[in-house]
Amino acid sequence: FPAPLCVCVCVCVCVCVCTTPTSGAATTAPAPSPSPRPQTERLKVRLAGYPRKHNEGRVELFHKGEWGTICDDDFSIANANVLCRQLGFVSATGWTHSAKYGNGQGKIWLDNVLCNGGEKSIEACRSRGWGNSDCTHDEDAGVVCKDERIPGFMDSNVIDNHMDVNKVEEVRLRSVVGTAKKKLPITEGVVEVKYKGGWAQICDLGWTIKNTRVVCGMLGFPLERKVNKNFYKLYLERQKNYFHVHSVQCTGTEVHLAACPLEFNKPNGTFSCEGGMAAVVSCMPGPLFMPSGGSKKKPKTSVRVNNVRLKGGAKLGEGRVEVLKDNEWGTVCDDRWNLPSASVVCRELGFGSAKEAITGARMGQGMGPIYMNEVKCLGQEKSIWNCPFKNITSEDCKHAEDAAVRCNVPHMGHENAVRLTGGRTRYEGRVEVLRSDSNGTQSWGLICGETWNTREATVACRQLGLGYANQGLQETWYWDSSNVTDMVLSGVKCTGDEMSLSQCQHHKTVSCQKAAAKFAAGVICSETASDLVLNAPMVQQTVYIEDRPLHLLYCSAEEDCLSKSAAKANWPYGHRRLLRFSSQIHNIGRADFKPKAGRHSWVWHACHGHYHSMNIFTHYDLLNSNGTKVAEGHKASFCLEDTDCQEGVSKRYECANFGDQGITVGCWDLYRHDIDCQWIDITDVKPGNYILQIVINPDHEVAESDFSNNAMKCNCKYDGHRIWLHNCHTGEQSETHLHYLMNVFIIINIKVFKNKNLCLGTQFEATCSFSLFVFP
User: Fold this and answer.
1) Do the beta carbons of residue 496 and residue 455 sit within 8 Å?
2) 281 and which of 78, 212, 740, 775 could share a cystine (Cβ 3.0–4.6 Å)?
3) Structure pTM?
4) How sure is the predictor about 396, in pLDDT bands with cuts at 50, 70 and 90?
5) pLDDT at residue number 745
6) H or E stretch covering 7
7) What cofactor(s) does the depicted protein rely on (predicted)?
8) Helix, strand or coil for residue 86?
9) CA atoms within 13 A on the CB side of 107
10) Residue 306 class from Cβ within 10 Å (0-12 exposed, 13-18 middle, 19+ buried)?
């Protein structure tokens, strides 16, 4: 290429302008930026919003003399990396959508930004161009940067300094009553804000109950209450106070104190509060966090208030929002889903305000109807049902748009009484608990692993804030890295709903047959888990009775699929009466359902020609009115695979050729009515009214985000010749579930079918007939 010609002009400084002369053939110029800016003007970037730390926030750009935001359409971690480096951080750890840090103001400068990740500035990335956007500020993008600065990075224009001088990142209540200091959660005290490595107070001049409501919501409490200021006035007059905030004017609907108009102490100003005192608040805890008052009833983490509940969350106070209508649970679409609406849900459930309004089914996809769309709460409503919303049509929303929340939860200190040691990551290890001896001395100790299983591990992972229990381990010799060797807990038995291991049952005195440290309990935790749900309508639609000859049941007898009386039958003559049905099991969680055992320990069954990956996967039972079993299906150890999946999801698991077994998220495993052991042997059952019960993963052998929906029940009437099934519903649904099948009884004559789809491939294909009766 021709050598560049440089002309230097010296005034007070030297500016060199270099050009490259062209030859006969034009040289190739670099591709222009989609968002060109004069090179003399450097793009300013800042982080803003609430609640946030210094390394996270809503992204704002300074262009044409005005601050504006970036739309979250097509936003990615590559975009976040470019922005974080531009802000002086080494990289990004995440990004946020849907205005997590609050709605910005002014222009939305960029939309559909597509970076490769290596650009020096966000303006070098592809986009629709400056100021060209079809978004609202509900879609403002944010970033979370790694809290590590680029060495030598010096640019005062990158982070807008005035955003950091007067900000409120952390708020606490300081209890002044001696007995209250030892109890958690702290519900009343002096309001303090983090300031210069210490804590400062807020002057209460002009303080209102609306300010109290915001503070209580931040700290995880749904309600506020009046406080006795006279008591605190006497105490605070003797204390030295430092007033960093002099005025707070909340409306009561904000989710963070930083969102309220605040007046901070001016530089070189006085730190007094003439005519006032330090702000004091009192909060009302939700039902889960009420003081026990000596009651033996243990608080549980499952929360449902009237007609709203959270499902699929890894931690307390988070999950997919589900609402109850006409006795059936359904979900909420995420269109226009925001923090005020999420806060109404959180407070309704006994938590504080919302930390995050989550979209895109990030807490798993629900099943059944979607009841609400474009919910528009103001923030002061008592229930989400009091907020304006649109009804759903089938074209509006899919379950891929299910809304979720992450709520502020009171600090209970449970995580300080348990720890993991020896693991390769912070999500695994031997469980050690802090216990007090008879002298009141605390030392760390181990838990006997003899009774330790998934339920107990679930509580441990929840207490640690590490999500779900992937596995509960009874031996941890491979994690022997601690000098703690004493067993301090044994016989631990949890329901799985407790907030801490201290709320579970255990021996009063330690009794452990295998007391060596290598037999101590351990866990492997995970942020995600599967969630299996049975398709109840399919059971109801496919049920029938078959009298099956004994000579066709040798394999089934070998796998213990018949009742005990079959052993006394005159083989191969005679028959067994079988209650048959299809079962379709969906995985609606956020992780694949996979057998606990590796394929090296799967059992080959020659009769049926496949490997069984789980000893117990499903129980089929027929119960009488008082819950006693009158007939029992086999404890099914099926081959797990993806029979089919929802649109856009690919199958991963197939049993053929010793393939991997499991059920992918968004897929289902179908066990047709005509396969062996897909039945209950009712040969010995007398005519009467019964309950058909099906339970998936009954021993909680594999971790799930929700075990309450693993059971299905149907009302059943048997007259000795025919079977009636009605009102099939999953465990938490009401007895009048399935509005579209309500009052439908499927009456099926023995060997009498007309629906060919139910009989294809069976010995009854040529002769089966079907009858359906609808009763008023």
Assistant:
1) yes
2) 212
3) 0.70
4) confident
5) 31
6) strand 5-10
7) Cu cation
8) helix
9) 16
10) exposed
Q: What is the pLDDT of residues 174-209, one digit of tens each?
A: 998 766 666 889 999 999 998 888 899 999 999 999
Residue 186 is which amino acid? I
Pairing status of strand 243-248 against strand 198-202: parallel
- Cα(first)–Cα(last) distance of the chain, in Å? 90
Q: Which two tokens stand for residue 293?
A: 């008052």
β-pairing, 522-526 vs 532-534, is unpaired
Residue 313 confidence (pLDDT): 87
One-letter amino acid of 706: D
- 273, two tokens: 């509060």
Q: What angle do CA 381, 384, 386 make, to 5 degrees?
A: 60
Paired tokens of 688: 């009467």
536: number of Cβ within 10 Å: 22
Q: Which two tokens stand for residue 679?
A: 């039945």
Tens-place pLDDT, residues 258-275: 889 998 877 655 567 888
Q: Per residue in 710-721, is it b (16+ CB within 10 Å) or e — as a string?
A: bbbbbbbebeee
DSSP symbol at 524: E
pLDDT for position 548: 94
Q: Could you tell me the two tokens for 308?
A: 């709203």
Percent of the chain at pLDDT > 90 equals 46
- Within 10 A of 117 (CB to CB), how many other CB atoms are there? 15
> What distance in Å separates the CA atoms of residue 524 and residue 173, rounded to the nearest whole number?
35
Residues 6+ apart with CB under 8 A from 3: none
What six digits make up the tokens of 477? Answer: 């010799």
Across the chain, mean pLDDT equals: 81
Reference 265, options 244, 289, 294; nearest CA is 244
Instruction: Give the pLDDT of residue 4.
Output: 43
Spatial contact of 749 and 773, defined as CB atoms under 8 Å apart:
no
* Side chain identity at residue 35, one-letter code: S
pLDDT over 60 (residue 111):
yes
Cβ proximity of 476 and 280 under 8 Å: no
pLDDT at res. 80? 95
- Please state whether the peptide bond connecting residue 51 to the residue before it is cis, i.e. omega within 30 degrees of 0: yes
Asked whether the beta carbons of 588 and 706 are under 8 A apart, the reply is: no
Average pLDDT over every residue of 481-487: 84
The overall longest dimension of the chain from CA atoms, in Å, is: 114
534 within 8 A of 481, measured Cβ to Cβ: no
According to the 3-state scheme, what is the secondary structure of 94-129?
EEECCCCCCCCCCEEEECCCECCCCCCCHHHCECCC
Closest Cα to residue 214, out of 128, 304, 58, 339?
339
Structure tokens at 225: 């209450």
Burial class (CB in 10 A: 0-12, 13-18, 19+), 513: exposed
DSSP-assigned states of every residue in 648-700: T-------GGG----B-TTEEEEE-TTSTT-EEE-TTPPSEEEEEEEEESTT-
| pLDDT band, residue 462 (cuts 50/70/90) | very high
Element (H, E) at 341: helix 339-348
Q: What is the pLDDT of residue 577?
A: 95
Q: Partners of 442 in the beta sheet?
A: 436
Q: Are 318 and 406 in contact (CB under 8 A)?
A: yes
Q: Which residue has the tokens 């200021």?
A: 229
DSSP character at residue 18:
E
Cβ-based burial of 454 (10 A; exposed 0-12, middle 13-18, buried ≥19): buried
CB 531 within 8 A of CB 705: yes
Instruction: Please give the Cα distance from 478 to 559 (Å, whole number).
Output: 36
Q: Is the pLDDT of residue 255 over 50?
A: yes
Neighbours of 615 (CB within 10 A): 14
Number of separate helices (H) and strands (E) present in the chain? 10, 44
CA-CA distance, 589 to 528, in Å (whole number)? 8
